[in-house]
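Prompt: May I have another protein with tokenized structure?
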Amino acid sequence: MDVARFTKMGYAGNAEPSYIIPSTIAVGADNNASGGRTGGGRVGQSQGIDDLDFHIGNAAFENSSTHQLNYPIKQGIIDNWDNMEKLWQRCLFQHLRCEPEEHYMLLDPSLRSLTGTVIDSGDGVTHVIPVADGYVIGSCISHVPLAGRDITSFIQRMMRDRGEVVPPEEALEVARKVKEMHSYVCPDIVKEFKKYDANPAKYIVPYTDIHPRTKQPWTVDIGYVACIFP
């Protein structure tokens, strides 16, 4: 399993992951009230009935109106061990349908000996890792708490400041979809703005979705948000 913004899971020997789901969990009110172990704690403690009232992945967003959404990993660090344990358990038993005691965890490092710099920017954190002859220079690793989720939050604020009418409970998810579906890197932001101003009908694209409760369609204009990010 590879857990980041999305959790990729599968078996060794497969050409691609068997399942790819958002690393998100939605817990019930009674379950969430007890809080979670942060920064550490033992895994595998006994669970009560309330602990079973949770959903992960896409099901978490589908139940966000009745459950509290939580991202167990923030800026590359496990922030809530209880919810992280629940996410792992549901991945193993519901999706992979396997017994953890019968499967080993395998760390597979790269076999190449290269010199360079690895920039790994995920959902919660960006790491800049220097490598010399295949060895990581640990003392020079940079941990930057700025990554994809920050861009998503910034897009959300930009759309709110522009007065775009987005259902409040869908605002963060809409911002994520706009980032992943429409945003791009431009070499010259000024030229890009002029292009949008010269032909707005061509470049300012609409985003349409269905309200989860009223089931009514709604539309917003993407506008400059697409070329400003990332």
About this structure: The chain has a mean pLDDT of 81. Helices lie at 29-33, 58-62, 81-96, 148-161, 171-182, 189-198, 200-203, 225-228. DSSP finds eight helices and 14 strands in the chain. Residues 148-228 form a domain with the Actin; Chain A, domain 4 fold (CATH 3.90.640.10).
